[in-house]
Structures are given as structure tokens and as C-alpha cells.
Design goal:
CATH architecture of the largest domain: Orthogonal Bundle
Largest sheet: 4 strands, mixed
Structural class: alpha+beta
Number of helices: 7
Low-confidence stretches: 143-150
CATH class of the largest domain: Mainly Alpha
Number of strands: 4
Order of helices and strands: HHHHEEHEEHH
Strand order of the largest sheet: 2-1-4-3
Strand content: 5-15%
Shape: elongated
Number of domains: 2
Radius of gyration: 18 Å
Oligomer: single chain
């Protein structure tokens, strides 16, 4: 059953219009079973990210911009605030996203959390979330540039 599902996924990817998915599917067909399992998990992970990126394009664009402008390449947490008049003082740098800029921000973050891309790490009442490294790599132009230059 698992192998049949994997072949169905590979077939879908080969037929996909996106060349990147087709190249990955081709690699999966010619790779070792261990690498196939790892890459299949990665493909599934990205497959769920694509519709979220489409639904939340403004939020993803702002996140990508923030990640690109982060000189330390280390900021992984963000705070959700209702508007820019709300003050937040934290012990470490965090990105700030405002519901006035993204009307459905909290529900969008809830979707990211339920998909495993972000984790709620609040210690008090302020909604603080941590982005997974895989999510950062998928959403950061800087990381994609570094990755593709190898």
C-alpha cells in the first residue's frame, strides 16, 4: 500500500507542470530506498505548503521579506498583534505581524500551526510563534539563494 501510494505520488509529480517537482520525482525513481523515503516526506511537506502560500500570499511575502532583511539569519519567532499601537517588549528579537495589515492573521497562523510549520511558544498572554527551520528554508529567498549556489 505504501509503495503504491509512493508510485501514485511520483506519477503525479512527473505529470506536474512545475519542472522542479518533475526533477525531484525523476531523482526519486533513480535513488536508493532510504533517500526515496526522506525525499517523499519532504515532497509531502512542500505539497501542503503550496496551497497555504497561495491563500496567504501577503503574509508569506512579508515573512520572506523579514527573513531576507534579518542580518543575523537567526530570528525564528514572531508576535501577532492587533495593530501597530500595541507595544511588545521581548527579551530577544522577533518579527511583528499585525491583524490590521492581515485581516485573517490569527486564523492564518492557526492553519500554519496545525500543519506543523509554526509552533505556539507563548509564555504569557502575547501570541508568540516559532517558525520551523524547514518552513524558514521554504519561505526565505536568502536561504533558497544559498542553497541553489552549491
Amino acid at each position: 500500500m505504501m509503495q503504491e501510494t509512493s508510485w501514485m505520488l511520483l506519477t503525479f509529480l512527473l505529470l506536474s507542470e512545475e519542472r522542479r517537482w518533475a526533477r525531484l520525482a525523476n531523482t526519486l525513481l533513480t535513488d536508493s530506498p532510504t533517500n526515496v523515503a526522506v525525499k517523499s516526506r519532504s515532497l509531502r511537506w512542500h505539497r501542503f505548503l503550496i496551497p497555504l502560500k497561495r491563500d496567504m500570499s501577503a503574509l508569506f511575502a512579508e515573512m520572506a521579506q523579514d527573513l531576507e532583511n534579518d542580518d543575523s539569519n537567526s530570528v525564528r519567532e514572531f508576535v501577532v498583534a492587533p495593530n501597530k499601537r500595541v507595544m511588545f517588549n521581548g527579551t530577544k528579537p522577533r518579527f511583528m505581524y499585525y491583524e490590521e495589515d492581515h485581516p485573517y492573521l490569527q486564523t492564518q497562523v492557526d492553519r500554519l500551526e496545525s500543519a506543523g510549520y509554526v509552533q505556539d511558544v507563548r509564555t504569557g498572554r502575547a501570541p508568540i510563534y516559532r517558525m520551523s527551520e524547514q518552513f524558514v528554508r521554504a519561505n526565505s529567498r536568502k536561504c533558497l539563494t544559498i542553497r541553489s549556489s552549491r
